[in-house]
Amino acid sequence: MTSSPEELLPSTRRALSHRIARAQAEGRAPSMVAAVAREGRMVWTGARSCMEGHAPDADTQYRIGSITKTFTAVLVLRLRDEGLLDLNDPLEKHLPGTGVGEVTIAQLLGHSAGLRAEAPAPWWERTPGSLRPELADVLGERPVVHPAGRRHHYSNPGFTLLGSLVEAVRGTSWEEVLRREVLEPLSMGRTSAQPVAPHAGGWAVHPWADVMLPEPVEDLGLMAPAGQLWSTAADLCRFAVFLSEGDERVLSAESVRELRTPAVPPEAGERNGGYGLGTQLVWREDRTLVGHTGSLPGFVAGLWVSVEEDVAAVVLANVTSGPYAGAVAAELIGIVADAEPRMPEPWRPLPEAEPELLALTGPWYWGTQPYALKWSSDRGLELTLLRGGGRGSRFVARPDGDWRGLDGYYAGETLRVVRRPDGSVSHLDLGSFVFTRQPYEPGDAVPGGVDARGWLGLGDFGE
Q: What angle do CA 293, 299, 304 make, to 5 degrees?
């Protein structure tokens, strides 16, 4: 992201305002506030309210529900990056006695641990957390309902366990760890576990009449890491920027990219979404969005980021049901990205040429399939297929002289340059696949060898 983004065009701002006005009216929300960030900062905010002459602004707090889960996931990744745990560790290694068996931390983060979706009755979102003082009260008698690791099954108690894990490892409350390690470094001073004025009140709107009922505001207790937080459109824009590019004071860009990477397949029948580590992933009109939606009685919220287009959007409303905050946030991103597409960075040559790398570029053949190996401006290698369908990937150099795959089929695999005794390049070895300079050239390192007759035409075959 650059440091001085251009202002949005008046026509784009008008389209954003119109979309929010329509969402508030059609969704019958007492109030709605939205914001858009681009190139590292908030570039638009808008609001609508049922109170004439009074509307919230980007610093008004709303409850954000399950967007809280992404914050909890960030805390867990910090523990991993400090070497205090491994995501493949069983939860019991760090938080014994929960009764959930050998489920791993990674499975909890990606909702594949097989735990129940909700805590036992009474409904935890609308009752005091004091009714569930112990983890056993949150998990119930039969907390595991699916084999661990087999399917995606969204679990609120799973993130309660992750919050308790953070407390056990850090030795202090989830709320304090979050404030100290995430909110303060990201300058999110208007995000908190309890409401701080100015904040919106939560309302239920009658499904068949235009009348309202106030919703109770409960402290969720142990369930807080799954949905407790209050925040503002401005603060969530800062968090969206963090989800796009990372911040070394909180999580590196590489660890944030891990949060955004699909962890498990979507639920059966769900073709437009997936889940990373504490983040939801959706696909809208060839656009990948990462973030989370949230709801608690009286509030709905949505936060999405398009990393490729460098645009994020936040939508907050104080109503139990009605407007689809996540869908509206996705549309706001589309309005900006379509009307004002991101300017590509100017092409620049590499600072200097490296003859050994330059000699690797050009066509290579896996059997008879033609590929091209390119040396990119970020000093990595990129393998692309030249014809038909196939597998490509980007590679980054390793200290030992080999290359590690970053994405696609070859993610994590090793690309090795194999040299002859005289130092010249013989072939490329990519996870045991051999790439040669010519297709099935006699004398090359082709697995299984090459027929001594070489390439044949129809007339070369005898009767």
A: 25
Where are any strands of DSSP class E within 116-196?
none
Lowest pLDDT segment from 25-39, 186-200, 234-248, 270-284: 270-284
pLDDT at 463: 54
User: Which residues, in sequence order, are bridge partners of residue 144?
Assistant: 115
pLDDT bracket for residue 1 (50, 70, 90): very low
**111 conformational bin, left if phi > 0, alpha if psi -120 to 50, beta if neither:** left
- Residue 181 three-state SS: helix
**337 phi and psi angles, rounded to 5 deg:** -65, -35
Whole-number average pLDDT of the chain: 92
Nearest to 135 by CA among 188, 98, 186: 98
pLDDT tens column, 104-117? 999 999 999 999 99
CA contacts within 13 A on the Cβ side of 422: 2
Q: What φ, ψ does residue 231 adopt, rounded to 5°?
A: -155, 180
Instruction: Output the furthest CA–CA distance in the chain (Å, rounded).
Output: 94
Report the alpha-carbon distance of residue 132 to residue 66 in Å, rounded. Answer: 19
Give dist(CA 16, CA 20) in Å, integer: 6
Instruction: Give CA–CA dist 272/285, Å, rounded.
Output: 10
More confident residue, 462 or 168: 168
Spatial distance between the Cα atoms of 370 and 36, rounded to a whole number of angstroms: 43
Burial group, residue 277, by CB count within 10 angstroms (0-12, 13-18, 19+): buried
- Model confidence at 2, in pLDDT bands (50, 70, 90)? very low
Task: Indicate the residue type of 431.
Answer: G
Q: Specify whether the CB–CB gap between 215 and 204 falls below 8 A.
A: yes
**Strand 393-397's sheet: what is its strand order?**
362-366, 369-375, 381-385, 393-397, 403-405, 414-419, 425-430, 433-435
The closest of 49, 66, 46, 314 to 203, measured between CA atoms, is 49
pTM, entire model:
0.89
* Rounded Cα–Cα distance for residues 444 and 246 (Å): 45
Structure tokens at 414: 């090793």
Does the pLDDT of residue 251 top 60, yes or no?
Answer: yes
Instruction: Give, in order, the Cα–Cα distances in Å from 11 to each of 22, 35, 38, 48, 340.
Output: 16, 16, 16, 19, 10
